[in-house]
Design a protein that fits this description.
With 515 residues, this protein is α+β, with helices and mostly antiparallel strands. The chain is built from 17 helices and ten strands. A four-stranded mixed sheet has the order 5-4-10-9, covered by helices on one side. The chain has a three-stranded antiparallel sheet with strand order 6-7-8, with no helix packed on it. Helix 5 crosses helix 6 and helix 7 runs antiparallel to helix 8.
Length: 515
């Protein structure tokens, strides 16, 4: 009797486990997604996800907002019209030079439920213009009904396959396997996994990823095990219908998901490396991974069949109410003075129309100056800075463009390749590479232009030498103590004695030797 009861109990437990555990796993994915959104709401002090979408995402086009839009659009629960209007205005008012960035914006706009002339131009003009990633994003756009005029999906797939490395996998440049690039290529090729030409390439890439997986279940990129690489591999596995417990991706009992969860912070966000503070890029990519686990993909955009005819131009985009600034107060004062001047003319009986016209024209000119002039002098921006507090030591920084020796045709680029010689700066606690660079260019009157915000700040130009000026792979990279970090310059926190060198590169840093 006891034996029969025991067997029955085991059966009940088995049935319970088969029903409850999958539900619990699904709930766990949703809980983590909710925690990430709660973190973003708390950080931005917004009461709801919709309010966050309406007010925060339209203010940032730095590689974070676009991913959240792609993921959240899958739920069908939110309105992205405010974001779409802001994005259309942004791309119409700014020159976007990076083809891949333009393709990401196009995907985000489509995910918002809108198309525009920007999308159609991007689809036709950017395919293949920046190496393999511009083919990857072109294929995502094509899969959603926006094929380039002169290149079909099959053509794009063929271009991607041609870039496979000899040992399997993919990279942006050179022959060094790149985890993230390989994973993102697999995501683009997923709809073609049964094609006889594509299938073996996918299998070789998966084999290469499996070989690169660490004993923790994670992946290394630029020499560092990080959350983003694990997230990208999870997305690839999900889109290829590969179980997380697949033996190829189970190392020392650890799955890729186990590795990703090890980067989770107490507040619900994710860090770039274990034990460090929350990182915006790591957090959003983790969110994408859990979105893929729940939905299968976030590249399969919805509701676009009848929207390709919609064209938004700057004139059809609603203007947002600008924030009150000193210019508003200056205009109020000018108007008040103009009115007061007219009153004085009436009081002193100087009522000839020319007098009134002179007062009004003077006011109009002053208003024009308020809108067109920046009253900050060069000395206000450049030169000596205020003394730092909490100084913990010193660092050195230099800016170089040695790769242009013999190739330089720009008169303002120094012949010796040194824009700023090795210079020492005081280091305050918590300062980043970007903080010191900003201090250096201000102290030495060096022109600088940067893009992005927060953790995703990147340098567009230094000393009037800009990214893409010498080809699609040219731009600025930095080394700390002779090594190239895998995080952005605004994220890398410096230590006493660090040596920073900014290099202009012609090949995404591959042509810069390690010091």
């Amino acid at each position: 009797m006891f034996k029969k009861s025991f067997i029955c109990l085991l059966c009940v437990l088995f049935v319970f486990a088969s029903i409850v555990l999958p539900v619990s796993a699904e709930n766990a994915v949703s809980d983590i997604q909710n925690d990430i959104l709660s973190y973003e709401l708390q950080k931005s002090k917004k009461a709801s996800v919709q309010e966050w979408i309406d007010s925060v995402l339209p203010q940032s086009f730095d590689g974070i907002a676009e991913w959240y839009v792609l993921a959240l659009s899958q739920t069908g629960e939110y309105d992205f019209s405010a974001y779409a209007r802001a994005l259309v205005r942004y791309v119409n008012e700014n020159e976007i030079t990076n083809p891949v960035t333009k393709q990401k914006y196009a995907l985000a706009l489509l995910a918002s439920g809108y198309s525009s002339d920007f999308v159609s131009k991007t689809v036709d003009e950017c395919v293949g213009k920046l190496g393999i990633m511009s083919y990857v994003y072109a294929l995502h756009l094509a899969e959603n009904g926006f094929e380039p005029k002169e290149m079909s999906c099959a053509d794009i797939v063929r271009k991607i396959l041609e870039k496979e490395l000899e040992n399997g996998g993919f990279a942006v440049t050179g022959n060094l396997f790149d985890t993230d690039v390989t994973a993102m290529v697999l995501q683009a090729l997923a709809p073609y996994r049964n094609d006889e030409n594509v299938k073996p390439v996918i299998e070789r890439a998966l084999k290469r990823l499996s070989e690169a997986q660490t004993e923790n279940g994670g992946f290394v990129n630029y020499g560092v095990e990080n959350a983003e690489s694990s997230a990208q591999v999870i997305i690839s596995m999900t889109m290829l219908d590969i179980e997380l417990t697949d033996s190829r991706f189970l190392k020392n009992g650890n799955t890729v998901l186990d590795a990703l969860l090890s980067f989770r912070c107490e507040e619900g966000a994710f860090s770039h490396t274990i034990g460090t503070k929350a990182n915006s890029q790591a957090t959003v990519q983790a969110y994408l991974a859990f979105c893929a686990l729940e939905n299968g993909s976030f590249y399969q955009l919805k509701g676009l069949d009848d929207l390709s005819h919609i064209v938004y131009t700057p004139s059809s985009v609603a203007e947002e109410e600008p924030a009150v600034s000193w210019r508003v107060y200056a205009l109020i004062i000018i108007v008040a003075m103009s009115v007061f001047g007219c009153v004085l003319l009436l009081i002193f009986k100087k009522r000839h129309y020319k007098n009134f016209l002179l007062v009004l024209l003077t006011g109009a000119v002053l208003c024009l100056l308020v809108f067109t002039l920046d009253f900050q002098s060069a000395d206000d921006y450049y030169g000596a800075q205020s003394p730092k507090e909490n100084v913990i030591g010193t660092v050195t920084l230099e800016i170089r463009c040695d790769v242009l020796n013999g190739k330089n045709e720009l008169s303002y680029v120094p012949e010796d390749g040194i824009i700023l010689k090795k210079t020492e700066f005081a280091l305050a606690e918590g300062e980043s590479v970007f903080d010191i660079l900003e201090e250096a260019v201000r102290a030495n009157r060096i022109q600088m232009e940067y893009g992005g915000t927060g953790d995703l700040i990147y340098i567009k130009g230094l000393g009037y030498l800009y990214e893409l000026a010498y080809g699609d792979l040219s731009g600025w990279v930095y080394h700390v103590n002779g090594e190239s970090p895998s995080v952005g310059c605004a994220t890398y926190t410096l230590s006493d004695g660090d040596t920073i060198v900014w290099h202009y590169t012609l090949n995404q840093g591959k042509d810069i030797p390690q010091e």
